[in-house]
Amino acid sequence: MVRKAPDSNSKSNGLTDVVQWDNYSLFIHDQRVFLHSGEFHTFRLPVPDLWLDIFQKMVAAGLNGVSIYIHMGATNPSRGVLDFNDWRALQPIFDAAKLAGIFVTLRPGKFDFINAETTAGGIAHWITSEVAGELRTTATDWTAAYEPYVSGIIDAVVPNQVSQGGPVLFVQIDNEFNQTPSHAAYFAQLETQYREGGVVIPLTYNDLNEGRNFINGTGAVDLYGLDSYPQGTTSACLNPTDWSPVATSYHSYHLSANPAQPFYMPEFQGGLFDFWGGPGYDACALLTEPAFQDVFYKHNWASNVKLISYYMVYGGTSWGGFPFPVVYTSYDYGAAIRENRALSDKFDELKRQGLFLRSSSEFRKTDWIGDTSTGIPGVTLNGSAAFVTLLKNPDTGTQFFVTRQADSTSTANISFTLTVPFSQGTLTLPQTTGSIALNGRQSKLIITDYTFGAAGALLYTTASIFFAGTIGARDVLFLFGDADQSHEFALVLTGAGTRSASSRIQFTNATAAGITTVAIASGAAGLLTVWESPSQLVLFADPVTAAMFWAPAIKAPTPSNDTVPGFESFWQFGTNETVLVGGPYLVRNATISNEGSTLALRGDLNASVSLTIVAPLEVREVTWNGERVDVRAEGALLTGWLTQSASVREVKVPALTEWKFADSLPEVQSGFDDSSWTVANKTRTNIEVKPLFGDGRVLYGCDYGFCEGHVLFRGHFNANGSETAANLTIYGGFSFAASVFINDRFISTVSTNAQSASDDGQLTSADILGVDHVNALFAFPDGSVVPGRDNVLTVVVDNMGNEEYPDEKSARGIAGFELVGGTFATWKVQGKLGGYTNFPDKVRGVMNEGGLFGEREGWHLPGFDTSSWTPRDLSEGLPGGGAGVGFFVTMFDLAFPRNTDVLVSFQFEEGNTQPYRALLFVNGWKFGKAISPGILDYNGKNTIAVALWALDNTAVSPSLELVIDSVLDGGVGPIATNNPVWEPRS
Ligand code: IPT
């Protein structure tokens, strides 16, 4: 069923002919593919059992690829230490991908080399301090620093390459770098390491826009692609309905840059990150709404793109120390799958496009013939407000007219007609329904000479194709179009069958023999069976109804000679068999057994729904998640009802009460003993900003092993009585804060304000870098300094993460210090317990803990005994209402029914303007808003800790609740938790 003869003789490859390409598209095992991929970062969902959930959802949208950054900083916490355990493991990614049937582009980066709004762009923090040479060059200390990590990646990749029956298709070796001589030499060095290590699949690269880097010359990669974020980045979510026009340069750029390769976009805007103080992720989802996907994604198709990955399809959570300073914990990205793993309306649009691409083999090889601006030979467009690009398959003659508004941002409703050549002469479209409509920001493919299934011949269509293929003995064509527009298509109706009796559908015999023209009048909503016979089924629906359908791949019960070993679950390689299933929230997979009579479906329900199935005619029995469903044949369809289990109504979450409290800033109490702390006495640093003033001592946490989270500094001085203030320059990154105390007295908190940087409606890199530090004079209150003995200035700094390229070696800590009227003797520094070489929590890893006292003690971990702590509600804030840091801990039980997937979030009060900052720990993980099973134990005890940092002497009253976003009957299966409990710490 799936192995086919090669259809091109002039292909190129990496080092294996299992993966090849020509100027049109990629080939895997000699078959053309449209690589339709989405980005997902497993480090942003540190629960390995949930990776299959995301992969299944992506495949259900018709995608066949996933692009994954691996985070060097998390897996290589210190020099020579590689930790590919727990959620950092790669094998479970590959296993889940193979099970779901999705090809992997691995992007291990290592430097800024992933960017991804993560600290130091993914470069391990220890490198930012320990490496003197320029990063991402051939500097020897940099090379020595990165090579072990790349070796670890190579070892994991080699046995999982597509050439070995694994899912790994490409390795992208660095991220968006320009080809200066030193960068190019570094690329060449990297490539040598991958090749010598046994990586034979193509090495790829993502250029920053149309940069022409690494196509030819030193360091050139096998397969080149360009990234594009046409709606902009940084602060575009502030104005979500302001569209940028589509980029008209793509096609000509590809032709001039790498015409011998297929057009590859390794990253195309799938959403956008939000920033501290930003409008929230719903705005980013609106910026990249379904209409955006419709117009911009199809414009990529019109540019003849045949490999694409949307950044992000699932964003997830930048928990712990992962964010770079601009972004907060949620990395929802306004993506098609939201942070809590819910499917959005963007997912529906992705699926409408994904199933079309999966269905349309003729679309995998197309010549770009022309567009409205160049003119298209033989084609006349009547309607100046429209814009058309013609792509044509040179072998089959199939034509794809990609239509949109001439002004791609226009919201006007327009209509047009098209006169086109096709197999039977010339044709004006539409024939009977007047004109083709575009409702505002809309794009449509008008298609001629398209085939489907074994014998389906579609002469043309102005309606969109949702699905085309064979189901059992029938050729099935499922079209859709807006209910307030009219649509028309013409095809050969085969077999002895029945036409729809709907008054909205008009059948006419076309002039050419055997062809029937079908006109769908506006007002046709819901699902219509246009034509059914034993050999053919034609369906039409409005777009929302169409998106209620799923087309799960039916894995062959036993691998046959036709399937490619290892690819049993992969559409096009293991199986071309499917069914259509309408109604459920999600269909994860389907099998057919009992000699074809039983269809077993697995998936999720968010409500009780009616079920509509198109299956082979032999199917008589249907099960849903293992339970029999009553179905009856209604014409060509099987219909039934799926009842959501009553147990979902039992799902409740408790209010968070019975908090216990302990002070977490003993450092500002008299007599605090910091003798175990590190003496900060270095006078050299590799960090970019050198000490600005003081006495040459370096007071950056990372130079002492404390690169993540809060770091505390204590400056001792023997007072002579004339000390009046400390002058400090403190670096923490965009939106950081730092509190300064003299002995046990609070002086003040300084911070940089995200909002002020963006009040012009824009947030530029200058805004961000300009607000990464504060210089201030911290005046000592009267009587706070005691002459003749040791006095201590304590500085609590929040490290917001390191910058991305080229500023990864970011200063975080105190860059300048001066004691007005005296001199500092010793400086002490303390961050996470053990620093990056000796941190105790190897499971959650180096990114989890910072240096607050409670974190050092492990108060955030489950199992820590708080029985001696004071009962105090979180809403009461800190005792005394003063500045400081306190820990609040509570526990609660959950008992969710099995086979439910509960999407839950923690919510602090909306629009908080109170002067506090808080860290939320869920079962020991420094986590943000949306919480997944695996982090929460859905059937057991859970521990929540909040580190509350009151920024000044104002009482604060935080509130925190656990809320259920939705309850799904189903889910991916059992989710293991791995939340190590507290153990005594030294
Ligand atoms: C592109 C990066 O490659 C990616 O890692 C991520 O940071 C993305 O931007 C924005 O979310 S770079 C491009 C926008 C300049």
Automatic annotation (TrEMBL):
Keywords: Glycoprotein, Glycosidase, Hydrolase, Signal. It catalyses: Hydrolysis of terminal non-reducing beta-D-galactose residues in beta-D-galactosides. InterPro entries: Betagal_dom2 (IPR018954), Betagal_dom2_sf (IPR037110), BetaGal_dom3 (IPR025972), BetaGal_dom3_sf (IPR036833), BetaGal_jelly_roll_dom (IPR025300), Galactose-bd-like_sf (IPR008979), GH (IPR017853), Gly_Hdrlase_35_cat (IPR031330). It comes from the Eukaryota. Residues 372-549 form the Beta-galactosidase domain. Its EC number is 3.2.1.23. Pfam families: BetaGal_ABD2 (PF13364), BetaGal_dom2 (PF10435), BetaGal_dom3 (PF13363), Glyco_hydro_35 (PF01301). Transmembrane segments: none annotated. One of its GO terms (biological process) is carbohydrate metabolic process. Coiled coil: none annotated. SMART domains: BetaGal_dom2. One of its GO terms (molecular function) is beta-galactosidase activity. Belongs to the glycosyl hydrolase 35 family. This is beta-galactosidase. It comes from Ganoderma sinense ZZ0214-1. The lineage of its organism: Eukaryota, Fungi, Dikarya, Basidiomycota, Agaricomycotina.
